[in-house]
Amino acid sequence: MQLEDVYRYIDANQQRFVDDLIRLVKQPSVSARGEGINDCAKIVEEMMQNVGFSTLIIPEGQGNPVVYGEIKSKSSERTLLFYNHYDVQPPEPLEEWMYDPYSGEIRDGKIYGRGVSDNKGNIVSRLKAIQAFLETTGDAPVNLKLVAEGEEEIGSPHLAPVVQKHKKLFSADAAIWEFGGTDRKGRPMIYLGLKGVLSVELRVKAATRDVHSANAPLVPNPAWRLVWALNSMKNEKDEILIRGFHDNVEPPSAEEMEYVQKIPFEEEEEKQDLGLSEFLHNITGLEALKALLYRPTCTINGFLTGYTDKGSKTVLPKKAMAKLDFRLVPRQVTEDILKKLKEHLKNHGFDDIEVITHGSTEPVKTPIDDSFVQTVIETAERVYAKRPVVYPTSAGSGPMHLFRNWLGYPVVSVGCAHAESHGHAPNENLTVEGFVKGTKFIAAILHDFSVS
């Protein structure tokens, strides 16, 4: 009866919960340019306090504040931590949005807005699941901790010292991570790990000012120099050419492959959604899925130099810049990869190129046979009436290693997004139905974890 009462409360207050989510979406919080961060942190803290959390704003040194909250259970000594982030990606390109990215517009059962699925929907979903328990039973089923940081979208560059300094605050028996949802057939997706990521910026300078392109026979072109440097790092077969880059790569275990083979990879739907006739190098089937989850990458995120507006301008630029990220798999270490990148540039005659780092996280996994993992799997199947899709790891990245590797407890990622939520892209959205169902899922996890 306890969960049925909680579910009824969620259904009865659905509109109020959606309104709170829209309020949070309307507040910009773009960490890449520091837009609206402090105001958003205050709203998150206020929402936590309204539920019943005792809260604390933890400054991240020169970074964005971490919002932290606790609720003590009267009936359990177990502790579950929720990790979330309130920062979002920039909304550009704005012209591709159907609605204002900070409007929280609802159309055809979907809430539109930057951050609605990544990650503000999950913040509100978790808070409302907890509120439903407190309002219907008068108690939290377990001790609860909720962490919402403001730099996840830029690599969480200042979170590590905060966790190191406040280990007691971040201690728990298990944690629910910030993302997840359902696939196109409504099956819940459960993720047990993340790739690591190293984000860097390469800068090249030449003349003290832009010059007429007629001077190309005499004046070095930093754009070409950066192109040549990038070309030395990866070939047309998509092979990364940095010496020693693959030295420590750990292949998936036999147990992991059993789960990977059960993943219903929606290959044709993914291609159609992206407007592709085929994946890179026509990779397909199980090999495509293995590559997505277990292959390290080197990706150009952006390239900027010279004149990029309409028409032509015969100019030779004075500088060039490229942003890259390296997605890393278990046994690879970001510090080691950064060292090898710098050595590669030096050995190939590009030691004049400046390398700037923009944050990093390490690869991480929780074992499939962990009891908490099995509890979440069983809960998901009961709530959604479908066997969940379990990913031993994922293609994404985040600071999960600070909690799993440093603090030592199991971490499982689930959420309320759907297959076409368009996170990080124009028209990011979340279905109202998925938000409500995801809230019930979190409530069920709270209950099942308390009795497992």
Descriptive notes:
- The structure is a single chain.
- This protein is an alpha+beta fold and 452 residues long.
- It has 2 domains: 2-195 and 363-451, 3-Layer(aba) Sandwich (Aminopeptidase); 200-249 and 296-361, 2-Layer Sandwich (Alpha-Beta Plaits).
- It is built from 14 helices and 20 strands.
- The strands form 6 sheets. Strands 1-2-6-3-7-19 form a 6-stranded mixed β-sheet, covered by helices on one side. The chain has a 4-stranded antiparallel β-sheet with strand order 13-15-11-16. It has a 3-stranded antiparallel β-sheet with strand order 4-5-20.
- A hairpin with a 5-residue loop joins strand 8 and strand 9.
- Helix 1 crosses helix 4 (116-137) and helix 4 (116-137) packs across helix 14 (432-451).
- The protein is globular.
- The chain starts with a helix and ends with a helix.
- The model has no long low-confidence stretch (mean pLDDT 96).
